[in-house]
Amino acid sequence: MIPRKKQKSPPTSGRQRQSRLSADKPSVFSYYSRRSEEMLGTGRKIARTETAEKTRQVTRYWRQRFGLGALLVSAILCAVYFTTLTNNPRIEVVGQNGASSLQDLSVYQSAAQLMLEKSVLNQNKVTISTTKLSNQMLAKFPELNQVQVSLPLLNHRVQVRLIPAEPILLLASASGSYALDSRGIALATGSRLADLSDLDLPLVTDDSSLELKLRKQALPAGNATFIAGVSAYLKAQNLPIASMTLPAGSNELHVRITGKPYYVKFNLADNNSRQQAGTLIAVYDRLNAQAITPGEYIDVRVAGRAYYR
Fold it and tell me: How high is the pLDDT of residue 144?
């Protein structure tokens, strides 16, 4: 038996083998190569992006903080500026009738300025006490009926409005003549009384020897308002008054009617001046109707009753 020869494979050149090998693995080598390059490049991009973003965030953070700080400082400076007050107040008189009883405005200006200078709290709109300043001015100047202290919105001067007390009667005594307000305080004397002539104030004479002083209590408040009330009521009833007198050592008011020989006794302890004056009007009309003229007085001191002599 003849042995069968093995068939030999056709010879392959080295070039063909090399091409076959290169055809089997090019994809693997190329894949890893490109991937490594891409990973390296992406990493650098991410790092650079993150660094730039952090820088922008830090810059934005401090820029915002600087803006807020500048705004806060500006607000504080504006607040300090607009709330600061000077010790130079602005004095204003409100009302006309009592203006003549006031002192020179420079007196009130100096007093208010000294009061403001006593405390550093008065140099700021937030800490100043307008009520305290008003009370201090009222205590120092009794001729003032009211003091209104207001704070300016834009400027730095405290505004002080003086409302003088209104005179309601004139009191003549051994110490001189004075204009009194409803509290019985002497507001004006001397030449200043001429400025009050247009007010047609009732005049009462004090027969006591008490010494009176300007801006001091001359009569009890109740007595002052009682006298003014009697005068106003009789004037409204067309009953002319010749004189009014406060006798020494008594709590009475003696009023003389024009053209009559008698006087009328009023009780100052009873503050109801209208009731006593009304009693006088009723008695006066009845006596005139009966053609009776008292020779000495009519007494209306007891409420609801009248006596004459």
Answer: 92
Kindly report the CA angle at 99 between 112 and 115, in degrees rounded to 5? Answer: 5
Identity of the amino acid at 135: N
Mean pLDDT of 31-43: 51
CA distance 272 to 252: 13
Say what the pLDDT of residue 306 is. Answer: 94
- Residue 246 burial (C-beta neighbours within 10 Å; 0-12, 13-18, 19+): buried
What is the spatial distance between Cα 147 and Cα 135, in angstroms, rounded to a whole number? 8
Identify the helix (H) or strand (E) that includes residue 245.
Answer: strand 241-246
User: The whole model's pTM is what?
Assistant: 0.70
CA 252 to CA 266: how far, in whole Å? 6
Helices (H), the chain: 14-24, 26-83, 105-117, 130-140, 221-236, 273-289
CB 195 within 8 A of CB 169: no
Contact 186, 215 (CB under 8 A): yes
Give every CB contact of residue 270 below 8 A, 6+ residues apart in sequence. Answer: 276, 301, 303
CB 244 within 8 A of CB 253: yes
